[in-house]
Amino acid sequence: MKVKLHVRQTLIKTVKQELPRDEMLCDLADLFKLFGDTTRMRILFLLFESELCVCTIAELLNMTQSAISHQLKVLKQAKLIDCRREGKTIYYFLADDHVRTIIEQGFEHLTEEKEPES
Which terminus of the chain faces fewer neighbouring Cβ atoms within 10 Å, N or C? Predict the structure, then answer.
């Protein structure tokens, strides 16, 4: 019985040490909330293909440039996208491969074939 208690206490200590700080977990939760908006997800999927300007994104999504600009601002503040200026036009693109990986893995999880339950 003492051995099981010691193993359990060791496990608890190890898990506590590995658990990120509450602040980091809140930041992570906030990041995932950004993926909870269909418009933002559609924008991110468009940016998988190419860097795009607001007017092109608005046309592709059949939305106003104002609505798209708002979502781009949210995504940029979260460092999920970045932009570059060419003359008067601003082009948006995925900030890095981490963003692509997060979305790809989420999509893969949703589309994977599940083993039938026995």
Answer: C
Which residue shows structure tokens 């948006």? 92
Helix runs in the chain, H state only: 2-18, 22-34, 38-49, 54-61, 65-77, 97-111
Taking the mean position of all CA atoms in its chain, how far away is CA 8? 35
- Determine the pLDDT at residue 2: 63
- 82: which DSSP letter? E
What are the per-10-residue average pLDDT scores of the chain (118 residues)? 69 81 90 93 94 97 97 96 96 94 91 74
Q: How far apart are the first and last CA of the chain?
A: 35
Let me know the angle formed at the C-alpha of 87 by 67 and 83, rounded to the nearest 5 degrees: 50
Nearest-angstrom CA–CA distance, 50 and 59 = 15
Nearest Cα to 68, choosing from 49, 47, 97, 50?
A: 47
Bridge-based pairing of strands 81-86 and 52-53 is unpaired
